[in-house]
Design goal:
Elements: E1 2-7, H1 13-24, E2 29-34, H2 45-53, H3 68-72, E3 76-79, H4 82-91, E4 96-99, H5 112-132
Parallel strand pairs: 1-2, 1-3, 3-4
Amino acid sequence: MKILFVCTGNTCRSPMAAGLFSHLCSDVVCESAGLYALDGQSASAHAVTAAAAMGANISEHKSRMLTPKIAESADIIVALGLHHAEALQLCYPHKRVLILGDGIDDPYGGSLADYKNCAIQIQEKLKELSEKL
């Protein structure tokens, strides 16, 4: 199974979610992309640190814009925010699109503590997701 995690810029939430879910469920292929991402950016330093503190290595992550090819390759698309889910459902109505919990607040520009709190929220919701799959 291949799961695609989608957020806005693909430098914070979706790479953390993909890394943490890969760590949680090693038999699932996890990828990430952003609705408005610039290709080739590294994950934010705080995202790398927060994910590493929870056992996930996203240090080699490079951002990428969501494309139809990327979306079509996924079995399930998991949105990190409500507005992401709405956009994904409009563009890919035939795909299974889920939202992680009620959505995860974007830590972009925040402190390391903000990113660590975000990673904790993501991990809690990923455990719920793994039980559903």
